[in-house]
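The instructor's notes for this session suggest beginning with a concrete chain rather than abstract definitions. Hand out the sequence below and ask the class to guess, before any prediction is shown, which regions might be ordered.
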Amino acid sequence: MPETGILLDTHVWIWMVEGDRSRLGRKAAQSIERASRRAGVLVSAISVWEVALLEARGRIRLAHRIEDWVARALRAPGVRLVDLTPEIALESGRLSGSAAGDAADRILLASARSLGARLATCDERLLAFGAAGHVGVVDGRA
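After discussion, reveal the predicted structure:
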C-alpha cells in the first residue's frame, strides 16, 4: 500500500503548531515539511482530544483559546484531519501486546496502519513498535 502521509503524534503536532520545531530532529522536520507540500500531514481526532485534555489539566499553555488553537492548527496548509472510524477503533483493539497501553497511542498506531501512513513521534515505545515492523515511523529525534 502506498504511503498516504505522515500522521503526527500529539506532541509533534503541538510542537509544529507552536513553532517549536527545534524539539524535532532535522530529518524528521524535513519529512514533515515535504508531506505538508503534498497535503500529507495527518492529525488524528484523538490528538484534538489529547490537546484539550492537556490544556484543561494545565499541562500545556496555548497562545490562544483551545477552540481557536485547534481551528487554526487544522487549517494549516497541508494538514488533514483523520476521523476515528469504526475500522480504526477495531484495529486499535487488535494491536499486538507490545503496542502502547495508552488508548490514545493505540488509536494513533491503528490510524497510521489503517491509512498506510508513517507515525511521526519521539515516543520510545511507539518507535520500538515501528522498529519491530508493526507500523511505519518517522523518528522525531532524527
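Then share the key points. The chain has one domain: 6-139. The chain has a mean pLDDT of 92.
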